[in-house]
Design brief:
Blueprint (H helix, E strand, L loop, with lengths): L1 H33 L8 H20 L3 H23 L35 H21 L6 H15 L2 H11 L7 H20 L7 H24 L5 H8 L1
Helix pairs in contact: 1-3, 1-7, 2-3, 2-4, 2-5, 5-8, 6-8, 7-8
Length: 250
């Protein structure tokens, strides 16, 4: 048992640091080659970018494991690339500029989200949101200079990890609506599932206090959701989506 814990302690940090590349490179290349991001949940880069930025600003107060901090920085770069490729190859659809026509109801805006959040037609609002988030947190940190016991540190840490734990949910919903996993790369799912095993082993084999319990709880929830994605892939496969089937039969 001690040997297994030692091996996990040696190799898990390397895997965690490289996981953004191993998990999403194939998805980026697939979208670029096919010239369409249909079937891929655009919320995935949105969730990961928001969560990773929050985790980066969580570190100065919590001083959690450095491997997780390095992973967060790399994840930001990879997810920005994925977002750019997905937006460049997004199927044509109706969206809205943010914060316009604020008097309209959420249903009337077309997405059912406040201000059509992360459903904007143009690319600029996505980058504006990420810039505001990063510079806003930087300003707060400069002003508050929080420590590990402050409410602010615990809040942004919990918020970031909770957001990251919801990562599989948009893809679960996209697959369910389409009754197909077409457009979602099995390589991403395989890396998510393998990553869950590595993370759980690393989190629970690490020395007490090295990895906060918030990481462990959110990791377990995400692992359960990833398992549900695996069941969906087994049930649906990469066959025709419902929209494609309706188009063919009409």
């Amino acid at each position: 048992m001690a040997i297994i814990s030692t091996l996990i302690g040696l190799f898990a940090p390397i895997f965690l640091i490289l996981s953004p590349f191993t998990s999403y490179t194939d998805q980026i290349l697939s979208i670029h080659r096919s010239r369409t991001s249909a079937g891929f949940a655009l919320d995935i880069p949105g969730i990961m970018l928001t969560a990773s930025i929050l985790k980066i600003f969580y570190w100065p107060g919590a001083h959690y494991d450095v491997a997780l901090l390095v992973q967060a920085f790399i994840m930001v770069g990879v997810q920005m690339t994925l977002l750019k490729v997905a937006l460049d190859n997004r199927p044509a659809w109706r969206g809205e500029r943010p914060f316009t026509e604020m008097g309209r109801s959420f249903v009337e805006t077309g997405s059912g989200r406040p201000f059509d959040f992360w459903r904007w037609k143009q690319q600029r609002p996505y980058w504006e949101y990420l810039g505001f988030l990063a510079f806003g947190l930087l300003a707060l940190h400069t002003f508050l200079q929080p420590d590990g016991d402050s409410f602010y540190t615990k809040f942004i840490g919990g918020l970031g990890l909770t957001i990251e734990a919801t990562l599989p949910l948009p893809q679960l919903y996209t697959n369910y609506r389409a009754q197909s996993c077409k457009g979602f790369r099995v390589s991403v799912l395989a890396n998510w599932l393998f990553g869950d095993m590595m993370k759980m082993g690393y989190f629970f084999a690490s020395e007490p206090g090295r990895v906060p319990w918030a990481f462990k709880m959110c990791g377990m929830f995400q692992a359960g959701c990833d398992a549900c994605l695996g069941i969906q892939y087994w049930m649906y496969g990469e066959g025709e989506t419902m929209d494609e089937m309706d188009t063919r039969l009409s």
